[in-house]
Amino acid sequence: MAFKEIIGHQHQIEALRQAIASERVPNAYLFVGPPNVGKTLIAREFARTVNCEALATSGDGDIDACGLCHNCVRIGESNHPDLMIVQPAVRVEVKPPEEDERGKGEPKARDVRREVYVDLPDALIYKEQIGELLRHLSAKPVLGRRKVAIICSAERMNMVAANHLLKTLEEPPPNTTFVLTSENPTRLLETIISRCQTMTFGTLPAEELLEALRTEFPEADESLRQGAAAISGGRYGRARWLLQAPDVLDLRKELLELASSTADVPLVASLAMGERLAEMPGRWWEAAEQAFAGTGAGSSEEREMRAEALEQLRKRSPDRINRIQVSELLDILQTWYRDLTLLRSNPQSELVINRDQAEVLRALAGGYTPEGLVWASQVIEETRRDLVAYNANFALACQVLMVKLISAARRR
Q1: Which residues span the domain enclosing 70?
Q2: Which pTM was predicted?
Q3: How large a percentage of the chain has pLDDT more than 70?
Q4: Is 108 inside a domain boundary?
Q5: What is the DSSP string of 305-355?
Q6: Which of 136, 149, 318, 384 is the most buried (most CB within 10 A)?
Q7: Sign of dihedral through CA atoms 107, 108, 114, 119?
């Protein structure tokens, strides 16, 4: 995906283009912004453009990678010796898929099992990963003009890894650029930040995001586009992926139906509703896993191995997966009560996040008091804290949350 094809972030892209065109590329960038907003995508495209053998120039003078030369193709396939990517990850050993040319059922001769790195919110970056990266960077570029090292979620480096990286940032190798991405730069060492040129990336406005989805997915149902936009929170890459993951969107709809039913069901229904909520994180993970196998980045073999690694993690640590995935479901519930609060004060507001549910929200908003809506938002965050920080019983926490959300509709 060339710079010109990326939605949003035009000021940041222009700054990168100018640095490449003027051959004044800094030794280190820090890309700051919410998760899945496009930081890593732009970092990869920077690596491709800075090493492109035949840069394309538009009528406006903007440069872009040609996408066809040897370097562009290999960087696009994540198979280039001058591009290195480090990310917080859990290592999972999987058996590579069989090669068709060897015949059905005959395993590959190389690597009976291979390691796959799966990024989880509680994973860290360790000294060994940074050490391996720095060893690669100690040599001159192999095929391109410049080595690019992308460190994703750099704030998740442990202290030893961060100090190890800092020593290299103080005296960086020639013809090398580090690109650190971060969701929370306050957790990075100030000395690391001071050695980077910082760029801040934001989310897209709702209407701009929807318009981009309408252009790229003209055949998709508008309600699906609105649902993907709502979950994505203004992150275009996330919205694109969601439109190719219909099972995930179906689960979102089911979750919002559960939320809407809390407005008028008896308290006795809370147990069954809590059980439904407790099942959803596992189902969400499975649906996302299946979608990634078909649409994720990388070769088909890489996607297949990552899907196998995700399945192993789900079977090996179901409680861990539930606690990781439930946070996204709680985020969606928060948008529901945020929309109810907004529509209670202004029924015609155009700022609704869950646009595909606007009529249902308007019908329910008047039945809540401001105190009840504030309380609903608070208990959702309390549940998140209890599950993530205090390791509360998962099923019980979901049932208690449903009791409180049902009570929120009656709170006066």
Answers
A1: 3-88+124-200
A2: 0.84
A3: 94
A4: no
A5: HHHHHHHHHHHH-HHHHHHHHHHHHHHHHHHHHHHHHHHHH-TT-S--S-G
A6: 149
A7: negative
